[in-house]
Amino acid sequence: MNKAIRVKNLVREYIMGDNIIKAVDDISFDVDEGSFVILLGASGAGKSTVLNILGGMDKPTSGEVFVAGQDISKYNKTELTKYRRDNIGFVFQFYNLMPNLTVVENVELATQICTNPLNASETLRLVGLEERENNFPSQISGGEQQRVAIARALAKNPDILLCDEPTGALDYKTGKSILELLARICRQSKKTVIIVTHNQAIAPIGDLVLRMKSGKIVSIEKNENPIPVESMEW
Amino acid sequence: MLVRNFFREIFSTLPRLMSVIIVTAIGVFMYVGMSGITYNLTLVADSYYGGQNVADFWISGKNLTKLEEKEVSRLEGVATAQARVVVEAQPVRDKDVTVNLYAVSGDYIINKPYIVAGRLPETEREFALFDEFAKAHNLSIGDTYELKIKDTPQKITLTVCGYIRSPEIIYNVSGIDMIPNSYKLGFAYMKAESLQDLMGKNIFNQICVKLYNNTDEAQEKFKRDVDEALGEKAASILSFKDNTRAYMLRGGIKEMKTTTTSLPILFFLISALIMFTTMSRIIEEARMQIGILKALGYSDFSIFIYYISYAQVVVILGVLLGVLPSGIITNLLISIYKATFSMPDFTAQFSAAAIIQVLIITNIFCTGTSVYICIKGLRDMPAECIRPKIPKTGNKNIIERMSVIWKRLTFTEKTIIRNIFRNKMRLVMCVAGVAGCMTVVTMAFGMNDSNYKFFDMLFEKIHRYDLQVFLKADTTEAQYRRIQSTQGITKCEYQMDVPSTFSFKGKKEGSVIAVVEDEISLMLLDINSDTSMKLPRDGAVVSSVLAKKLNLREGDILEANITGKNRTVTFKVAQILKNINGIYVGRTVWRSMGQEYNPSTIYLRSSDSGFVKNKIEEYEFILSAKQKSEIVESIEEQLKTMKVVMTILILFGGVLGCVVLYNLGIMNYFERIRELATLMVLGFYDNEIKTLVLRENTIFTILGIVLGIPLGIRFQAYLVANSETAGFEVDSYISCLSFFIASCITFGFSLLVNLSLGKKFKEIDMIGALKSVE
Ligand SMILES: Nc1ncnc2c1ncn2[C@@H]1O[C@H](COP(=O)(O)OP(=O)(O)OP(=O)(O)O)[C@@H](O)[C@H]1O
Ligand SMILES: [Mg+2]
Fold first, then answer.
1. Are residues B45 and B67 in the same domain?
2. Which of the two ends of chain B, N or C, has the fewest CB atoms closer than 10 A to its terminal CB?
3. Phi, psi of B83 (to 5 degrees)
4. Distance (Å) from the C-alpha of residue B280 to the closest C-alpha of chain A?
5. ipTM, 2 dp
6. CATH assignment at residue A24
7. Total domains, chain A
8. Atom 14 in ligand 1: which residue has the minimum CA distance?
């Protein structure tokens, strides 16, 4: 199987006055194309930092990050922007929708800049929001807003979908339905999906589970038979 | 703890706080600076006129003695009267130079000279000389100076004992020239004994009068009383208001008042709006903090004080930063006045009243706003405050409802329009700010255009002579004929000016009757008459300014009291015209009323006016001759002052517009930093983001310019209507080119703002912006 992502000796340091904080401390891992990855760890472990680097929003202090064979750690600002534009879909804990664009327009916002986008309305149907197309974000619930955010990331037709605590602001049931959606997307459209969470209970649903602690990866666990999201409990 | 939080908060809102402070400072700067001009000049005028006891009236006549002086001083309402000798002299060698000599016996009581250096004359061999004249002629204290009394062979030699200035000659002009010239024109104060040989002992030719109350009624009564008491002995009575050389300072202040009050108010209004919006926005955002403080148990009062102190930072810094440099603008404009008017030197002071006004207004807008928002916030329960404010549900805007148009727009355009309509307050503020900038800039150009157009028209359509000649009083028939027959003159028209007080239905106004030829072609009255104009046979032509003041309409009967003659004539108002001064009558009409006619101004047409001028100047009965080009030049000199004012206006109007746009732009930037970060994450390039966000500013600018044009026209018309230029009614006019340049300047300023805002985009920290909850 092709490697979608190869991370080699990745280090990200923050300099705070005299202190150097190693948010990511020499980690290496590979991700197969089309796999459903769960990145686990306590608060402050460095998960978001890894995800931001993978998403081209941040640059490593040292180490290499290959995405589809290209070393993105060497990219300059414009190249990184192009990389985010064409290869990456990002979903945040806080949905970060444009408050003054309708649901469908929020999705179109992403599709209009892509070379190979999906149809906005179709994507919304995929996340089950075809009825709310013309509502504004303030008129729909948090879970629905997160669905819009996922649709927006998805509609760009990216290779990789990165989700930072996508269920963090949602209740159990809604969170579960979001995970279900992400899993379905991963299985159906063969996209690589990485989900960052501190919730241990989510681990069994992933093909690959990475555990982080204080900037280091403490375990890499391949799951040959991930359980379906519906049967997961937390 | 609250104190530490206070400083943190100031720091975290610094960019916006700074821009409110700057806007406040600009408003304050213009307000205090501009009102400082009238304030300081009024202060100086009051103390100078008052301290030197400037006369209310100058009565001229031949052979006046101490007897007449006493008679006048006994008249009702008269505080003091002082007789003196006034003669014109010239240096023996330099015929071009005139020195007016003022001599009293005893001390100066009225029109006391202001001593710049040295002292007043103590013996008949000394005199005190106008300092600028002395400087121009290199005369030091102790030097002797030989003068020839004009029209006599008499010469006197005097020693300069001091440098002086005079409250009755603040504007040192001869009455013919319009620009002060301290080389060609000087004056000196001396003892009457110095001129005894010339006049005879205790013989005077002028009495200066000071009234107790200088009201209009007192003046009228005084004039009548003098006519009665002195009769023919008083050849003329000149009032303070009609004495240009003395009155010019006071008159100048009056003329300027509209501009110096309305302009800064316009500026201040714009900055007040900004204060209001920014302060309300900053504090609005602090709602959550109010909730937290309340939940922690801080009393309403201490929270209240907290936000009032926050507003005070803006008030104190804004006012301080505005007031301190405001002296620059005051001094700049005052220096123009100092150059034209000779008055005691002074350093401009801050007007306490203006500073207090400014403090009150900024407090109303800054502190008032934060108190209002604070009270609103405190009324809520802590829990409500802590929850972020629910965003308004998106309503469809006007353009969206017009689905035909909406469908045609690209996605980016839709987004931009949505954003514009999302925050209507910002839309209004931005457009108002740019419109304000545009108004000020347009107006500045308009002032220039109107004046130039007016003077162009004046010299092209009205002044059609080549040479203007002023004659001395008592010119004889033979002398008139002599001028007329001078070689090279192709046309010749006479004019007599009769200073009078006009009255109509209880209203009174001083002005001049100009008695002109029955058909005039060299000095026309109407821009629409082509080569010549016939004066009405049954009445007079009245200037629209005078008509407005007296509420006259065509057909009314106007009464004129000839100054110093105690004679009243009546005219029918046959025509009212703009662009003239006072009233005009044909000489046949004038003669038919039984009035004497001895003109003192002649307009000449000649193919070689330089030659004719030289020739005419040799005649001893000529006061002066001026070529049209010289007159045009002197007017252009006057217009320079206006250029300075114009530049200041454009500069500050622009800066204000800039700050408004920047302020709102940066507010927009901070409010939408999350959205901008999201766009970046989605992979939008910098330029695309700039288009999305900054295009708005461009649209605001265009709207502002479009709105600013009519506002500029209105405001300019208002200014022109309220400040007559030299007694004329000037038409408000702004050329297309000016509109274009004003628009370009405004647009340029807005581009500048966009450029600096664009730079800010590079600083956005995507991760940081998206991490937190709003
Ligand atoms: N901009 C920054 N400046 C300094 N230190 C930072 C910065 N961003 C992150 N860190 C530090 O790096 C470490 C890892 O941060 P990161 O946000 O990746 O953690 P996380 O695993 O995502 O935690 P959480 O689950 O709370 O989101 C933390 O100790 C944090 O303090
Ligand atoms: Mg995180």
1. no
2. N
3. -85, 150
4. 21
5. 0.87
6. 3.40.50.300
7. 1
8. A46
